[in-house]
Amino acid sequence: MRLAASARLARGKGRTIRCARIHSSAxxxxxxxxxxxxxxxxVRGWLISIAALIAVMVLVGGATRLTESGLSIVEWKPVTGxxxxxxxxxxxxxxxxxxxxxxxxxxxxxxxxxxxKTIFWWEWSHRLLGRVIGMxxxxxxxxxxxxGVPGAGLRRRxxxxxxxxxxxxxxxxxxxxxxxxxxxxxxxxRLATHLVLxxxxxxxxxxxxxxxxxxxxSAAASRLRVTSVALLLLTFLQLYxxxxxxxxxxxxxxxxxxxxxxxxxPSAARLFFETPWWRNLFDNTLTVQFEHRMxxxxxxxxxxxxxxxxxRSRAERSTVNGALWLAAVVILxxxxxxxxxxxxxxxxxxxxxxxxAIAVLTLAVFQAERLAGRQGEQAAQKVARPVTQTG
Length: 391
Ligand code: HEM
Known about the structure:
By secondary structure, the protein is mainly alpha-helical. It has 2 domains: 28-217, no CATH class; 218-373, no CATH class. Helix content is 74%, strand content 0%. The structure holds protoporphyrin IX containing FE (HEM). Residues 62, 65-66, 195, 238-239, 242-243, 245-246, 251, 257, 292-293, 296, 299-300, 330, 333-334, 337-338, 340-341, 345, 350, 353-354, 357, 360 line the site of protoporphyrin IX containing FE. Protoporphyrin IX containing FE binds at residues 62, 65-66, 195, 238-239, 242-243, 245-246, 251, 257, 292-293, 296, 299-300, 330, 333-334, 337-338, 340-341, 345, 350, 353-354, 357, 360.
């Protein structure tokens, strides 16, 4: 580790002043002051655990949606809601509240209390996990702040992640509320906002963990840097479109491949029958699924070209490996998407498609951060020079 190495160097005679410069430069890179170096690993371990919990949360959220459980709790009580119904009377009350919403009347009329309990437990577990993540983030964060561990830059970043997490709780309720009065399921716009915000927080944490390593930017041609960022942006677009497909149940309606609605490219009249035309991009099940396919193909093509480019330009080994892994997992994900579609979206395949989406995002963040997120080589050399000169 860079900080440990510089601490060892500091023990040599006559290097105190130069090494103080190294310490402060390394601290700038990791965001943790050099005298707090032992906390470096602790902060990283904490953030990695939060990222893992968010990944689990996204999957539980997916299972909640796929089992149509998301509207089973019709109120939002951030604190007291942590307790599930404990007596028969409380269960009956919760069930009666569910019976008042259109989803029960139109889709689940006659459901038994035991069936209600199943959908209740999915939604309750999803919300409970949200609370657990909130606490697992907030308590160590406050402790790190109290110990003065994060430098100003890292502190700002951690507050931002905290703010986005709090917003996510509110977005979750905003999404549920959209399905309580007129509709029988939640709005696909809100579902997509909820999923993308979760994955944005996840990506922000993964990026921060990578930055904390303090490694300098990998040397690579600027085209590789541009395509690594393009891949990350395309991935986010694709996650958004995937959530729209899921929210509209579009995978259950159009489930042929490579054809869709009778052709490789559906007719413009059917792709754009709603007015104004742009509504089709978000509302029309055919258009939304077609977009998800096209962006999927674009992602596969860009990832493969990026990997070939990295290998041919003899970029650093980590860059080539990162590009190859990303291309392989994107291809796996596209294949899984097709299989999920052809099988009419069974729970196991749909969840696997969601899990691999998180893997794609993680690898895309790794690659963009490796190539475009770190300080340039020159900055790294500025840190290293005093040691090598005096060696
Ligand atoms: C290549 C990159 C791809 C990525 C990153 C991706 C990502 C996603 C995501 C995040 C979802 C939302 C899951 C949820 O909210 O539960 C989704 C849904 C879906 N995707 Fe993809 N997808 C990709 C490619 C494809 C392809 C090529 C197809 C088929 C041609 C496909 C078919 C589907 C279907 C049918 C759903 C709806 C599943 C459901 O209702 O649970 N995907 N995708």
